[in-house]
Amino acid sequence: MSGNDNPYSNSYGQMSASASFGAAPAAAGGYIKDTTTATFAKDVIEESRNQPVLVDFWAPWCGPCKQLTPVIEKVVNEAEGRVKLVKMNIDDHPSIAGQLGIQSIPAVIAFVGGRPADGFMGAVPESQIREFIDRVAGPAGADQAAEIEAVLKEADELLAGGDVNGAAQLYGAVMQADPENAKALAGMANCMIAANQHERAREALTDLPETIANDAAIQAVLKKLEQIEEARKLGDPVALEHELANDPDAHEARLKLAKIRNVEGMRDEAADHLLYIMRKDRSFDDDGARRQLLQFFDVWGFKDPATVAARRKLSAMLFS
After folding, report:
1. Mean pLDDT confidence for 144-158
2. In which element (H, E) is residue 244 found?
3. Domains in the chain with CATH codes
4. Predicted TM-score (pTM) of this structure
5. pLDDT greater than 70 at residue 184
6. Active-site hit among 17, 65, 253, 275
7. Is 62 a catalytic residue?
8. Omega before 106 cis (within 30°)?
9. Is 65 labeled as catalytic in the residue annotation?
10. Which residue range or ranges hold the Thioredoxin domain (predicted)?
């Protein structure tokens, strides 16, 4: 999917996939500041509990300091908040450097969790500064991966709560950061389904790379679409309910009604219909009610409350 064929490149309905991912970048220099003896505790000790803080001890007369400054500032800014840089002029504020035993400059000490954790001395090359930041803050991709998982979780919760537009914006933001994220793609397709854009959801899941197409989240959405298409052909639910009122053991009608209730979002009722058939006649459709219930579980997800409740009832029936 690319260019104009990408279903996420434009707004659809009331949903937009144009949300930016993560926090807005800080202004230039926003990760860098000067500190004093009086503000060191706040600028370094307290702040290092949020992310590592690199303290650059320098002096105006120090030639290597002048060489290091533009390089370390460049790398810190490019790290975009993984670390912050605090600079301390030891001519004006010598006490902290003395307490840390610093005898030559430039000296850079990394504070993590309120304590000195690592450091280096001298005007080292840019590559070594990058390695140093990776060492104290973790690899560059680690923070983004954790953020993506948090955003996906929030999007799932919004969608479950009925905020389709809010969920779509978050899924779209993840896809901007990670275009091949299967969970985000599946979530976006679920938003389309919730907006009754079933054909667009199927289009979004067409011609995917095999590694993405085979992902469990993608497969679950495809099964959901199949269930929706099947339910459309099963007749009028009111007529089916009337049939069951006259004959509670009309298992074929009950199975159809279960499939309809499932796509309507009435998962507990759908499961109860299937469990009723199982209690009455496991031979119906060659144990078809149980097989259908397991297909529901695949789509609902292992942790869905309806799955948990129905599995508990199913276990009690099978093993009591």
Report:
1. 86
2. helix 237-246
3. 32-139 (3.40.30.10), 143-228 (1.25.40.10), 237-319 (1.25.40.10)
4. 0.51
5. yes
6. 65
7. yes
8. yes
9. yes
10. 13-138
